[in-house]
Amino acid sequence: MPRPGRDGRYHHGDLRAALIDTAVGHARSLTGLHHLKLGVNADNLPARLLYVSRGFRCVGVHPHSLFVDGRYFDEELYILPLSRQTQASAQEPLDPAASPA
């Protein structure tokens, strides 16, 4: 019997990748949306690898951002550029000392 939330047609994260791809595809179809942002527990290696495999790029870490069961966790921040212009600027190195324009 399949486990709840699992579809036997998908294997080893294929369903998760398909869900991300569907969300990204929908986002690309929207006018005026330049990028997607997400945050993930830095200890969640499978999720981090999934996001990177779908084109997301880690742009920073928010230390002690999450507090669960008496323990702090860092949160990694990711972006996925959706437009060519945003993709070009996303490749530029980030300068944490630069102030926003």
Task: Provide a quick synopsis of the model.
The protein is an alpha+beta fold and 101 residues long. The protein is 32% helix and 30% strand.
What does this structure look like?
By secondary structure, the protein is an alpha+beta fold. The protein has a domain at 33-89: Gcn5-related N-acetyltransferase (GNAT) (Aminopeptidase, 3-Layer(aba) Sandwich), CATH 3.40.630.30. It is built from three helices and three strands; from the N terminus they run H-E-H-E-E-H. The chain has helices at 14-29, 45-53, 84-90, and strands at residues 35-41, 57-68, 71-81. Strands 1-3-2 form a three-stranded antiparallel beta sheet. Strand 2 and strand 3 (71-81) form a beta hairpin. The relative contact order is 0.17.
Describe the secondary structure blueprint for this structure.
Layout: H1 14-29, E1 35-41, H2 45-53, E2 57-68, E3 71-81, H3 84-90
CATH structural architecture of one domain: 3-Layer(aba) Sandwich
CATH fold name of one domain: Aminopeptidase
The average pLDDT value, as a whole number, equals 81
Shape: globular
Oligomer: single chain
- In terms of DSSP E residues, the strand content is 25-35%
- CATH C-level class of one domain: Alpha Beta
Number of helices: 3
Structural class: alpha+beta
Largest beta sheet: strand ordering? 1-3-2
What percent of residues adopt helix (DSSP H or I)?
25-40%
Gyration radius from CA atoms, angstroms? 16 Å
Low-confidence stretches: 1-5
CATH superfamily of one domain: Gcn5-related N-acetyltransferase (GNAT)
Record field, number of beta strands? 3
User: How widely separated are the two ends?
Assistant: 56 Å
Specify the biggest β-sheet: 3 strands, antiparallel
What letter string, H or E per element, gives the SSE order? HEHEEH
